[in-house]
Design brief:
By secondary structure, the chain is of the alpha/beta class. The protein is built from 7 helices and 10 strands. Strands 1-6 form a two-stranded parallel ribbon. It has a two-stranded antiparallel sheet with strand order 2-3. A hairpin with a 2-residue loop joins β2 and β3. α1 runs parallel beside α5, α4 crosses α5 and α4 packs across α7. The protein is globular. The two termini are 22 Å apart.
Length: 202
């Protein structure tokens, strides 16, 4: 019988929200940390797990803590090199690459360039790399289930990023989720990030 993973995205999705949910679902946290070490990023980050209460409901929160200054930006080619030189399984590499490629293609269209020439700012930092690769690791650990999702809540208001103050949803989120059922306005802040959108789309 095939495994099915259903995302209730009525509160949006981000990379760290996704990691917390998948660890809560049963992925061993120590295993996740050990697999992420295979990226060989020389101590750029570590994961911290916390038990938190949200509206009196117990939840798992995963924080990616950066341990040293980050490169100003990494290109999609840089990310691919990190993945290829790692000791991760081939399926993890492929899924993580597909997620980064989805973001790169969206950013390329927005900035009028090619995916290979896109330089990631926030998404190229260690915390976003950990979120994306961690998602691939967790999904493999859960047996590569079939994935379904509700309409994705995007939020509202404004978000601050490397390109300045942008309205929500950000252009990259709009491009990534083109043709995907979404909802807007449940809160006046960003509820779905480009990283979260790409993880769920892929």
């Amino acid at each position: 019988m095939a495994k099915i993973l259903y995302y209730d995205a009525s509160c949006g999705i981000s990379g760290d929200m996704n990691l917390g949910a998948l660890v809560e679902l049963g992925v061993d946290f120590s295993y996740l940390c050990a697999e992420l070490e295979k990226l060989n990023l020389a101590g750029e980050f570590k994961l911290e797990r916390k038990n938190v209460l949200k509206n009196s409901i117990a939840a798992t929160k995963i924080d990616v803590v950066t341990l040293k200054s980050q490169p100003h930006a990494r290109s999609y080619a840089d990310i691919r090199q990190i993945l290829e030189s790692s000791n991760l399984s081939q399926s993890c590499k492929q899924r993580a690459d597909a997620i980064f490629r989805t973001i790169a293609q969206a950013e390329a269209k927005i900035h009028g360039t090619s995916a290979e020439q896109v330089h990631f700012h926030e998404v190229g930092a260690a915390d976003s790399i950990a979120d994306v690769v961690g998602a691939a690791i967790c999904l493999e650990a859960l047996g590569a289930p079939q994935i379904f999702a509700s309409p994705i809540e995007l939020g509202g208001g404004f978000a601050h990023c490397a390109h300045g103050r942008l309205t929500v949803p950000a252009p990259a989120v709009c491009e990534i989720l083109k043709g995907v059922p979404v909802s807007l306005g449940r809160a006046n802040f960003e509820m779905t990030t480009p990283t979260g959108a790409a993880i769920l789309k892929v």
